[in-house]
Amino acid sequence: MGRCADRHRPAGAQARAEAGSPARAAPAGVAGRFLREQFSLAFSVAGGDTASALAAGCPVVVKPHPGHPRTSSLVGGAVQKAAAETSMPEGVFHLVNDVSVEAGTALVVHPAIKAVGFTGSLQAGRALFNLAAGRPDPIPVFAEMSSLNPLVVMPGALRERQAEIVVGLTGSVTLGVGQFCTKPGVVLGLRGPELERFETGLADAFANVPAARMLHRGIEERLAGSLGKTQDFIRFSGAAHLLVASAEDFKTSEVLREEIFGPATLIIECADQTQLLDIAQTLDGQLTATVYLTADEHETSRPLLEILAQKVGRLIINGYPTGVEVCPSMQHGGPYPATADSRFTSVGTAAIQQFARPVCYQSFPEALLPPELHNANRCRIWRQINGKLSKEDVGQ
Amino acid sequence: MGRCADRHRPAGAQARAEAGSPARAAPAGVAGRFLREQFSLAFSVAGGDTASALAAGCPVVVKPHPGHPRTSSLVGGAVQKAAAETSMPEGVFHLVNDVSVEAGTALVVHPAIKAVGFTGSLQAGRALFNLAAGRPDPIPVFAEMSSLNPLVVMPGALRERQAEIVVGLTGSVTLGVGQFCTKPGVVLGLRGPELERFETGLADAFANVPAARMLHRGIEERLAGSLGKTQDFIRFSGAAHLLVASAEDFKTSEVLREEIFGPATLIIECADQTQLLDIAQTLDGQLTATVYLTADEHETSRPLLEILAQKVGRLIINGYPTGVEVCPSMQHGGPYPATADSRFTSVGTAAIQQFARPVCYQSFPEALLPPELHNANRCRIWRQINGKLSKEDVGQ
């Protein structure tokens, strides 16, 4: 993989020029990739995970999800054709022709696999994580598993922009039939007439959502199961589902704290700001959290924002978490159980770091260095030289 | 932790200026730090690990090693005094007043601990790794455990610079009574009269090494145990120990593949270049590998260097691995069992990444952003803005 590539982690160069010992990112090894259930095209066979592993120089072995084996096979064929046409090394991409759990297990424990990316349920993700940690040589698993994506509506925002929030939240909860991992699954607000009006407004808006099929029958059955377990809290059910619970119930109920995968959200009624902070403090790790507030509420919201920043990978003000942009600042990850390692992201340019490990080349003659570390910066990449980031050649 | 700090990972900023959503590195949480046995001052209570965790914004809880509890206590007091004098938050640094295994276990499984750094034996490191992976919320453990630090002497180098290599290798093996984690523990060469002469020269040089005490009795007893197990291969024993084995014996012997902690090294005699490559291929993950070669041997050494680059965190030509510099390009890590996660280093400025996780702030008003992400770059840190690294303010 000796070609120039704009690697995310800048190569470092040692301060002492007489014995330059620069470092570069090297591929971690063969990457195993488990396909998401809810994405059959984006973030699937040819998605960001595959791209970031290939960009790090890792061959990729993809295990298709049982929900879309044929789509996976079609896209896999296209990737293999593209790899051949661009003269990538043979075997750089492989699609496992088996959607079973056993095939997944075999992939994670195979000695050649050195990193694993997974998106799916907490149960399956944790099982793969445990398998990887139990190997003779443990390997990292970036498992993206479960997120409630809490959304807090501060009283001022509820007063001033209620109609707008009803429309936006309805769209965010029902986008893609609620099958986004960043769907807002719980909404915290302060109990009172405004919140009651908000709940009524949301129920009305949900009632107008047209029915749509979810990706496959298994997901629909699981949603029905989740709704069955939480039926005491369902305020409205149609093509979308609105649940309402008190802060006390949320705090003590295991069932309410589980992600409901599908077009459903749970409003949690808090008695006051103190209880709202208390609920925020008890939340597990999340991919995102969102706060709706007015300019007057900046100062009073600081304690809440500080708590939420410790819980999430992405914190949003007056927006919706469902949109995920592929860009340098994207952090699609978060503390457990949102993911298995909060230091990484599966979306955005930083996703390459899941699959790259640094190698330092000490006292190497120029001729034996990899191209990224030659004195002449032919790759035009950012490099850290004697403590300064630069695109210059060394020794100029 | 709102003060300006030159964070290693540049903050990213979103390409769309109308809804800027930059990211910054946030502390992973409280860091647990297990002290190394072999360093009572450097890389100990006030060492690089503590510094990098504090730099990431993490409070640090240090568990002293039973080998040097009083030194740890003295340095710990100095750190606490310094923290108070510089108005760091109370509790930012804590030294556990208990050197027992039980105290270590309690530290790793404590819910407040979010990352662990460890240096020590493979057995202890793996036990801590397993504990951390088995938590309800698994946490990352950067465990640095075991490394043979192979050194290969190519035939030309052995012919041309034998006397120099004997002196250098003797110094590297016996530096600090062989208690460096980067001590060259195996030396690969091609069988023949030159290698025999080299072995004799090394034995002579080892004979002139003055006796010295190791750090404590436990280490000395373990060294005696290791040498007992490998006694069939000991060619010379004095204050330093030279072992010699055939490539065949090395390949089949578990005992020879274990790190001998102390002033000892094992020469592995290979029949030819093919066998040397075969032995290199069978090596486990290592912190370092070193190759001695002449300019004439650049081309013939490429296959060997490619194999070694896949095994190590740091690759050295015509030098010695024992010196570890604290600099941006340092990679003090490597594939398992050298460390538990080859994507991180415990030495150098990148060590901060063990303890930092990114948080993206989407659509935040300037007033609520952390200082590193304000439009005005008062911290004068490198930031990635619209895809470009810059120290400028935003909007100029």
What's the helix-strand series of chain A?
EEEHEHEHEHEEHHEHHEEHEHEHEEEE
Point out poorly predicted stretches of chain A.
1-19
Distance between the termini of chain A: 27 Å
| Order of neighbouring strands in the sheet with most strands of chain A | 10-11-12-9-8-13-14
**Global morphology of chain A:** globular
Note the beta-strand portion of chain A.
15-25%
**Average pLDDT across residues of chain A?**
90
Q: For this structure, what is the CATH homologous superfamily of the largest domain in chain A?
A: Aldehyde Dehydrogenase, Chain A, domain 2
* Computed CA radius of gyration of chain A, to the nearest angstrom: 24 Å
Written description of the protein model:
Two copies of one chain form a homodimer. The first copy, chain A, is of the alpha/beta class and 396 residues long. Chain A has two domains: 23-145 and 341-356, Aldehyde Dehydrogenase, Chain A, domain 1; 151-317, 3-Layer(aba) Sandwich (Aldehyde Dehydrogenase, Chain A, domain 2). The first copy, chain A, contains eleven helices and 17 strands. In chain A, the strands form four sheets. The first copy, chain A, has a seven-stranded mixed beta sheet, sandwiched between helices. In chain A, strands 5-4-3-6-7 form a five-stranded parallel beta sheet, with helices on both faces. In chain A, strands 1-16-17 form a three-stranded mixed beta sheet, with no helix packed on it. In chain A, helix 6 packs across helix 7 and helix 10 (273-282) packs parallel to helix 11 (298-309). The two termini of chain A are 27 Å apart. The relative contact order of chain A is 0.16.
